[in-house]
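Problem 3 from the worked examples.
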Amino acid sequence: MTAFVRRLRGTYRRTRLGTRLALGLGVLSLAVFGVVGTVLTTYMRDYLELQLGDQLKLIQAVQAKDAAAHGTVRRKPYYGWYTAVYDVSGDAVTLRRPSDVPDDTRALADLARAMAHSDSELTRTARIEGEGTYRLRGCEVEPGVVLVSAAPVEDVEETVEQLITVQVVVFALALLALVVFGRRMLRRGLKPLGDMAHTAHGIASHDLTESAARLPLRADGRDGGSEVAELRTAFNTMLEHIDDSLAVRAEAEQRLRRFVADASHELRTPLMSVRGYADLFQYAAANEPAERDRHLARLRAEAARMGVLLDDLLLLARLDAAEVEAPLRTADTDLVELVQQAADAFRASHPGHPLTVTAGPGAAPRLRLDPQRVRQVLDNLLTNAAVHTPAGTRVSAGVEVSGGWALVRVGDEGPGIPAEDRERVFDRFYRVDKARSRDRGGSGLGLAVARSLVRAHGGDVELSGGPGATVFTVRLPLDGGP
């Protein structure tokens, strides 16, 4: 028995949700129909028996007068009914003749005997041999004389049986229709869940390793009610989150590949130069001192350039890693004085680019920042303006305070940056002019380093302007950043 129950449970667990709900609905409906049928049948039986009792009482009122006048009942009752008049003396019961009684009169005599010792009318149900079940009622005609009437209960039983039969048929048809149409409605209502399951299987079979893979699957539709709509919304939100995560991962992978390729390319050039100049020193004995000095100077320049590149890469790596000890040494610093120092250094190294420094009203804040790193940011932005503009181009640097931020704007009146390149100027190793020489254009890390350093201070760097003007805005929080 236990094994059978286990198999039955296992079969039930493997059935689909719609089938479970339909079976549950059928069992619940069967229980409701059973309760309703039982209550209705009981009520109908009690009602019919009450009606039968009222009929007996009404008929006995007429028969009692007949018995009092003639000694016996001359008026015949309904077909199948019996009437008897008894003389009761103590426990002795004598039937008056003529009487319309069955062969088995024990039940009638017993009721007459009990009626002689009762102060009220008596009613009981008894079985008469050879006739069936009857409803008996007794009443006293006069002292010592008892009238007993018997009505068959067969009609009541037949009516109740017919009612039960009708109920069984109607309830069975209603249960069948309820299960069939309920199953269809449940299948329609659960179809959105099936569609979402199909979508989930599609996601499981989707290649999530592809770069920039976007999931083309969505759970759509309007059926299912508010609960299914909430589940559909949550499901689609999850898919959007997965899509965004895949896009971010794919973009990160592409940037990593591009970064590795660009870094390898940038490091390969100075390494090849160092290797070439080192090979030249094999013939140093045959070269003139001036030529050896020139080769040595080039060798040192390439090594220095490679060192700067590696320093920038190491700084970006530490900033990206979000180390516990950030590469910042903060101190209270006068931002205007820091900008002035960067401007003085720029004028000394780029005399061909006139520089103007301005400070707005209230633009003398002392901020909690790393002066060396912010100075590096300013030097990178100013150098970028000088490198990518022709000689004589005006450069400007301004400081102002606005809305809880200290703003440093570095601009030039050069040719500007094309619109298609503005979104990528802060990418590592990205150059607007792909054809310019590395000696002039640098490694493409200056702006990336500048933005990373400013963000490490809790600020940001923005690019604005159009053809004929380029403006970089450094935003630093007045409260000292994170």
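Problem 4, a separate protein:
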Amino acid sequence: MNSTDTTLGTAGGGTDRRRWFALAIVMTAAFMDLVDVTIVNIAIPSIRQESGASFSQIQWITAGYALAFAAGLITGGRLGDIHGRKRIFLVGIGGFTVASALCGLAVNPEMLVASRFLQGAMAALMVPQVLSIVHATFPAHERGKVFGLFGAVVGLGAVSGPLLGALLTEWNLFGWEWRSIFLINLPVGVAGLVLGSRFITESKAPRALKLDLVGVALVTLGLLMLLYPLIRGRELDWPVWGYVSMAGSLVVLAVLVAYERRKGARDGSPLVELSLFKVKSFAAGIAVQTVFGIALGVFFLVWTLYMQVGLGWRPLKAGLTGVPFSIAVSAAAGMSVQMLVPRFGRKVLQAGALVMGAGVLLYIWESGHYGLAIAPWQMALPLVVMGVGMGLIVAPLTDAILSEVPREHAGSASGLINTVQQMGNALGLALVSVVFFGTISDHLRPEQIGPAFVDAFQNALGWVVVVMGAIFLLMFALPKRPAQHVEGEQAPVEGKEPALVS
């Protein structure tokens, strides 16, 4: 993806008042994507009970979206560069709306899983255009204000997603039960499609780029060969073909690297700019982002199952329990960027990893100490500690990774950052079958379900602590202080959603 834009239509988009309508539209789309991830987590037990979905299918309902989103992000950004950001954004939001309708009308778990894959693929077309459109529409002196608004939208989405999911599930509007969490996207999507076609200004990259279809195919194949056996392995008693597939995925990814190297030398249009990995801070940051995604993928799914299946809480109770966590993330994220990182640099991110790990350890202790009698207020302290740690990481991490990247590659690098975070998230969701369900017997009596889920939750969180320790060590390879960018020159972070989603 290219960091330079040619704005079509109104010259000097920054002087056009309609740009604020365009901002509201693309921010709504970003909000819709973020809420859609968190809203599904809270409704998972209801989906499983009403649709009869297996635990493997439940994992695919969440992992399928993340996998399709991850595999398509770079492609979505490149399509916007080639064919126009407005055009691809409208295709994405239209397709996302249709996919949401298919999710809400799903007649069986298989249709729901397939529709979630489609929804993730359409989000991969829609989301990368958001900040690209902002970059092309607003002059440099206004972008600080705009990105501040974007941060507020992200914080609002983090808080409102679980609550909205809980309320819609509890209210059972029109007898739709969990289906309303998808169908609510329809009026929002239609409004975004109509208003976007009127108010968004078209923009493209100045140099014609080519779409690397072979690279897209190799990335998708490699991920599927790795993730499918992890998700289905426990259910199928870990067949030999699963291990062969996972080993084969490494071969496919090695072929991808070799192909991308040759394609970059041949026409300068690879899907992945491999030269970026020669930058130490970028390579380390990509590792941090991937591993952090794994931790989040594991935590958010097992947390929902622990509260609603293990403890037997209703969706609204579980949703309200997460509010202190979301508020802590938003508050710490704002402080880290504005006050702490400029003074302490990399140490803020490392402190975040340690604080989040401490919060997880506290949660493990409380879960074991209080057992099935634990109350939401008793979870507040570990969740706030975890939220503070996460907030110290998510906001400044992108700048730290990009600080030593050559400016001409900033667009490609930022797209890759979000892609690997989503890939890590999908991998974490797949690993739930090992670190969580792997400790639960297939034949539990009703009175055994609660204690079994508490034990599995503690086991999964133990692995999250190990991951946070690895992240702390990896952060030593990040620059001590991110380089200061000149306002208006840094490329937009295309496709970048802060790591609040899972």
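Solution to problem 4. DSSP finds 17 helices and two strands in the chain. Residues 16-206 form a domain with the Growth Hormone; Chain: A; fold (CATH 1.20.1250.20).
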